[in-house]
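A quick aside before the break. I want you to see a complete sequence-to-structure record at least once, exactly as it would be stored in a machine-readable document. Don't worry about memorizing anything.
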Amino acid sequence: MSARRIAVVTAGLSNPSTTRMLGDRLADATVAALRAKSTASEPTGIAAEVDVFELRDYAHDITNNLLTGFAPPALEAMVNAVVSADAIIAVTPIFSTSYSGLFKSFVDILDPDALAGVPVLLGANAGTARHSLAIDYSIRPLFTYLHANPVPTGVFAASSDWGANADGVAPLGARIDRGARELADAIAARMPVRDEDPYDPATYLGEGRSFGHLLGGLAGE
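That is the input. The structure line, written in tokens, reads:
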């Protein structure tokens, strides 16, 4: 079976970015969790490919899309890669107790039904743990509105989680592993997304059918 595709979308503004760091760790843990899964069709584990998109690289294109209603080619390719993925890892910094404006602007240019049923692992980071509830009261409702399927565990990282004074009761690594396992379970339970060729007759005639089937049916009428 072909490898599952995971799209990582991060909305960090700096370079390097702790938002990107969190996205990378969530992706690595999810790939490892999938590799450890054995199914009847994939006895050696589920293979996965990861595409990482930093929204800061598309900020001007996103603004232009909001103003004109048209996506420049680079943004269009990125959006297509995200909405056609088997799963999404979405990570945003927290500004003023909620997701960043860049993150919300990206969501605003998506088709409202583009993420229906797609498993999503939510992540967020901020300077203080006082913002740790932002995932559940702000980000999760956004993806629920889009009919996506956010996994139960959202992973929040405060600045202290990257240093020596990290949370010893619920360390960041443990939270990452838990969220990754939940996303891996959701990916494994869902049929893989196939990239369909728009010029393949099976795309619009049905699997195993051809123009000969269509013409034969018409001739018999």
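Two observations worth writing down. The chain has a mean pLDDT of 87. The longest helix spans residues 18-35. We'll return to this after the break.
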